[in-house]
Structures are given as C-alpha cells and as structure tokens.
Amino acid sequence: MYLLNQFWAPRKVYNPCGMFTYGHIVLLLIAMLILSILLLNSRKITKSQIKNLTKVLSVFITILEAIKIYFNFYYGYTWINAWFPMSYCSLFIYALWLSGYGKGKYKKMGEVFIAGVAIVAGGTYLLIPSTSLTMYPMWHYLCMYSMLFHTLMVYMGILYLWKKEIKLDIKGYRMYSIFFLAFSTIAIILNNVFESNLMFLKKPSTIPVPLLHTLYNNTKWGYTFLVFSVYLFIPYGVTSYLSRAIKKAKLNRQNDCDKEVIKLS
C-alpha cells in the first residue's frame, strides 16, 4: 500500500528519491537489467524490424508522456516547465516520430538524433537524474517513467548506430544541428516569455555541477551559451568519435585474424 501511495503522490508528500542515493542505484540497476535484456533479444533484429519498433515506441512513449502531462495538470502544476516536453532528452520523442513516420530530410533528422545523441544523453541522465528523482519518491510514476524513457533512449541509440548503421558524418551533423537549433530556439523564446527553464538553458537548477552554478551567478548569458554549445557539439561529437574508434578496432582485429589465417594456410 505504501508503494501504491507513492506511485501517484503529489510533490512534498514523500521524501524525493534524489541523486546518487540508494533509490537511485536501485532504479539504475533495474534500468541496466532492462537494457541488457532488450539488447540480448535484439541480436538478430533487422532494419525493417527496427523501423517498426520505432513506430511502436513513438506511440508508446507519447502515451506515457501524455500521462505525465495529465499528472501535472491534475495536481495544478501548470507552469510550462512542469509539463511541456521540451527538455533536451524530450527531443527523443520528436525524433522517434520523424524517424518512424517522416520522409526525406525530416526522417534523416530523427535518425541522426537517435544514433548520434541518444546514447550519451540518455546515459548521462541515468547517471545524473536531475529532474523527477529530485522531486518525487523512488516508486513514483514520474521517476520510473524517466528511468525507462532514458533506458529506451540508450537502447534505440545502440540499435540505430550498430544495427541500422546510421552514419555520423558531417552531413549527419548538419541535419542534427538544424533539428537541435529549431527546438532550442523555441525553448529560448518560451523561457524568456514564461520565465521557464526548458532544456536547462536559463539556469542550472538541480544540475550537480558547481562550475555551471558559478558561471550562472556571474554571467547568465554565459551560462546559456555554454549549455547551448555543449548540446550542439558534445553528444554528437563523443558518439561519432567512439563509433569510429570501435569500428576501427574491430577492423584491425579482423585484419589480424585474416593475416593469421593466411599464415596458417
């Protein structure tokens, strides 16, 4: 009964789960277990199956997001930052729809976001869950949804990168940049109009990085510029670099094996 009461409780009724706590570690381990099971069952997944999975997940996650929005309005949390799906990771929802149902450049935008950003962004949140877990108890709907959401981000990022083989080249980066710039522009406008903090572009809030808080206290626009730049360059750049490094290592290993076979023959 205690767990059921937590599931749909308003803010400040129960102590929040928090970051780097026992509750966070438990949810993280559950997320890793789910991710492992998904990847294990996806070893032989085909590109057409990934496409169908993308379509299904776009609808499934949108429904879960709608429940989140309903929860916030139900308890009167109607300020835009509480319910509007415009965090950096929330772009995953739009990317799923574009990749699953879009065509041409719009489809490409969705694909490169999922392949080039989802692993780093989703993984970062799982390690540093700076939103729902700082406000709600461990077994709350929003905490469990947040952890599942970002687990699915990592999962789909892996599928797109290594099964669908989306190329993370300069052309792909341009498409990602257009996609991100469009949404970040909307976020900045809404932040200034409604005094919100979409994408954490206005202030660091609960992000546990002292440097960001120091920068914000000294120069607010400097903080916004830094976070904006991190979003624009780091996730895609890190994923692209690691992807190339892994592929190169596999190729070198394969070449070494081929040389050994030639010597033996």
From TrEMBL:
What Pfam families is this protein classified in?
Answer: TMEM164 (PF14808)
**UniProt superkingdom:** Bacteria
Keywords in alphabetical order, please: Membrane, Transmembrane, Transmembrane helix
Q: Which residues form the signal peptide?
A: none
Q: Which residue spans traverse the membrane?
A: 20-40, 52-71, 77-97, 109-127, 139-161, 173-194, 221-243
**What's this protein's name?**
Predicted integral membrane protein
